[in-house]
Amino acid sequence: MKRSKRFAIVAAVAAVAAAVALTGCSSDDGSKDAPASDANATATLNSAADAAAALTGAKVVLDIQGSLQGVNASKVEADVATKPKVAAEGTATLKMGDKSSSAPFVYVDDHMYANIDDKGYIDYGDGRSIYDVSKILDAEKGVPFILRNITGAKEDGSETIDGVETTKITGTVAAKDLSGLTGASPEAKGLESDIPVTVWVTKDGKNNVARVLAEPAEGASMTINLSEWGKTVDAKKPADVKSPSAKPTTAPKSGEPTRQPVG
């Protein structure tokens, strides 16, 4: 065999070996590296997460456009306290069939009491059937957690929100990490993707979160506006809480409640 031919074969073998070595160094599950985050954006998000986790109270306005499985409210506007226990008082706009209903609610002692269609306050347990307000500022599942898990974070200019100048930051977050706010089970199918998210952080040195915008599903968005950071909230259980009756023997018509309050 001629020397030039042997050299070509050796070179080819070396190239194959190098390719195998490179393949072995890559991820076995085929996952791609997460996009790099800007250092300044990451620092701002971490400071904002610390500020949100330390909040004792705030005004929260949650607005949902489109349909999210597991969320029956299209809007929640409430004063939310985090310490010594989570408490909230406000109004939820509920989707009931082809109509909407505005319901005042109070969340105290891990129970949500709501007055839907002026039928009287009923105990809705943990409130998940309406919206679990206890998760919004939760350090393990809510806004602080989301901020710490954003990848590919980039600063995208400044914006004024409700008269407050903010830094706008874009990035993505794993759908399963957003499940605490969307109400979806972290093990549900379809939560393997990354979700676009935008955060606005105040530029007053306090690094408070003014707004979080995510798009958890196609054609659906979730916006959380925070203001009055550190607000004192004094929510109390309604004086007259009615007990729900037994489930009806026949299926209710669209938009009708599944239970009627009784005295």
From TrEMBL:
Pfam families: LppX_LprAFG. It is found in: Cell envelope. Keywords: Cell membrane, Lipoprotein, Membrane, Palmitate, Signal. PROSITE patterns: PROKAR_LIPOPROTEIN. The keyword Mitochondrion does not apply. Residues 231-240 have a biased composition (Basic and acidic residues). Residues 224-263 are annotated as: Disordered. Belongs to the LppX/LprAFG lipoprotein family. InterPro entries: LolA/LolB/LppX, LppX/LprAFG. Residues 1-23 form the signal peptide. Its main location: other. This is Lipoprotein.
